[in-house]
Write a structure and sequence with these properties.
The complex is a heterodimer of chains A (92) and B (260). Chain A is mainly α and 92 residues long. Helix content of chain A is 73%, strand content 0%. Classes of the chains: A mainly alpha (92), B mainly alpha (260).
C-alpha cells in the first residue's frame, strides 16, 4: 500500500514538474500576469517548428499523466483490490 | 651443558604454541586480570574503582526505583546517519534549483530604477500578513453614536490590528507551555496552531488581493472563515484520532518522553 502511494506521488511530482516547465514556455504570456501556466498557447501550432510541436504534445502528455497516474495508483488499483477481496470473501 | 640440551629436548613438545588461548587469557570472564587485581587493591586505583562502582550502583538503584524508561536507541549518530541524510536532502534541493533555473524561461530582470515608483508596491513575502492587516477597512465599525462616523481612521485601525495580533501571539506561550509532543495530546491547542498558520496564509493572500484572480468580497470573507473552519476540522479529527488510539486508556504510552 505504501509502495502504491509512492508510485502515485512520484508520478504526480515528476510529471507535474515537467509539465510546469513546459507550460512556463508555452502557456505563460508573462510571469507578471495573473494567468500563468494555463493561458492559451503562446505558439501558433499551424506553423510551429517540430521541436515546439513535440514540446507542446509532451506538455499535454505530462499534464494528463500527472492527473491519471495518481488516480490509478491511489484510487483505481486499491479499489480493485478491495473489490477482488470482497468478491473472494463472498465466495468462500 | 649436556643437561641443558637434554632439558630442551624433553620440553620441546610442551612449548609448541597452543591456539586456544588457554594459559594466556583467563579461563572465563569472571576471573579478574592482573591489571584488574591491581586496580582493585592498590592505592589511588582502588579508590577510583570504588568510586566508580558506587556511582554505577547508585545509578542502577535510581533506575530500578523510578519510572525511568530505558530505550535502546536515544538518537542516531551524526556520522554517518545524520550527515548522509542531510547531504542527500541538500543535494536534492540544489539540484532542483539548478534544474529550474536552467529550464524555466524567466531571466533576471533589469535593475530597479530608483527614480520611478512602481505601480504595485509590496513588502517582502514574509511580511504579507502584516500588510494584509492594514487592509481590514470593512471591519472598521461605523458607530451609530457618532452619527455613522468611524471612531478612528482606517490606517490607524490597521496598525491597531497588528498590535492585537502580535499581542495574541505573545500571550499564547504563557497560556500553553508546550508540554505536548504530538497534536493528539492537546487537540485544542493543535487546532489553535492550525488556525494561526491558515490565518497567516489567508491574510497574506488578502494583502495581494489585486492580483488574486478571485472575487475580492469572497476573498475577504474566506480570509476569516477558512482559518476557523480548518481549526474546527483539526479539532474534530484529533478528537476522533484519540478515540481510535484509545488515548485515555493508553495515556502513559502517548505521553512517553525520552530520558533527559
Amino acid at each position: 500500500m505504501t509502495d502504491e502511494f509512492v508510485k502515485g506521488l512520484g508520478i504526480l511530482t515528476g510529471a507535474g514538474l515537467l509539465w510546469m516547465v513546459l507550460a512556463g514556455w508555452y502557456r505563460t504570456p508573462s510571469f507578471g500576469s495573473t494567468e500563468q501556466l494555463v493561458a492559451p498557447l503562446t505558439v501558433d501550432t499551424a506553423n510551429a517548428t517540430l521541436l515546439n510541436l513535440v514540446a507542446i504534445t509532451l506538455m499535454d502528455v505530462f499534464f494528463w499523466l500527472a492527473l491519471l497516474g495518481p488516480l490509478t495508483f491511489w484510487v483505481l488499483i486499491p479499489a480493485g483490490r478491495q473489490a477482488r477481496k470482497a468478491v473472494e470473501e463472498r465466495r468462500s | 651443558m649436556t643437561d641443558d640440551t637434554t632439558t630442551d629436548d624433553r620440553e620441546a613438545p610442551a612449548k609448541t604454541p597452543v591456539a586456544d588461548g588457554s594459559g594466556i587469557v583467563a579461563p572465563d570472564d569472571e576471573t579478574p586480570t592482573w591489571r584488574e587485581r591491581k586496580e582493585r587493591h592498590v592505592g589511588l586505583a582502588r579508590l577510583t574503582y570504588e568510586y566508580f562502582e558506587r556511582a554505577r550502583r547508585e545509578d542502577q538503584d535510581l533506575r530500578t526505583e523510578s519510572d525511568y524508561v530505558e530505550r535502546d536507541v536515544l538518537a542516531f549518530p551524526t556520522w554517518p546517519h545524520e550527515t548522509v541524510r542531510n547531504l542527500s536532502i541538500a543535494t536534492f534541493f540544489v539540484g532542483m534549483i539548478i534544474f529550474l533555473s536552467a529550464t524555466l524561461p524567466p531571466h533576471i530582470g533589469d535593475p530597479a530604477n530608483p527614480s520611478s515608483t512602481p505601480a504595485i508596491i509590496l513588502p517582502d513575502w514574509y511580511l504579507y500578513w502584516s500588510f494584509g492587516l492594514l487592509k481590514l477597512n470593512p471591519l472598521n465599525p461605523e458607530l451609530a453614536v457618532l452619527g455613522g462616523q468611524k471612531i478612528m481612521a482606517d490606517r490607524t485601525y490597521g496598525v491597531l490590528a497588528n498590535v492585537v495580533v502580535v499581542s495574541i501571539i505573545a500571550v499564547v506561550p504563557f497560556l500553553n507551555k508546550g508540554a505536548a509532543r504530538r497534536p493528539v495530546e492537546q487537540p485544542f491547542w493543535a487546532a489553535v496552531g492550525v488556525f494561526g498558520v491558515v490565518f497567516a496564509f489567508t491574510i497574506s493572500l488578502l494583502s495581494v488581493k489585486n492580483i488574486i484572480p478571485m472575487n475580492v468580497d469572497l476573498l475577504f470573507d474566506l480570509t476569516f472563515l477558512a482559518p476557523v473552519v480548518t481549526g474546527m476540522i483539526t479539532y474534530a479529527v484529533l478528537k476522533t484520532m484519540r478515540e481510535g488510539y484509545m488515548y485515555d486508556l493508553n495515556r502513559r504510552y502517548y505521553r512517553l518522553r525520552p530520558p533527559k
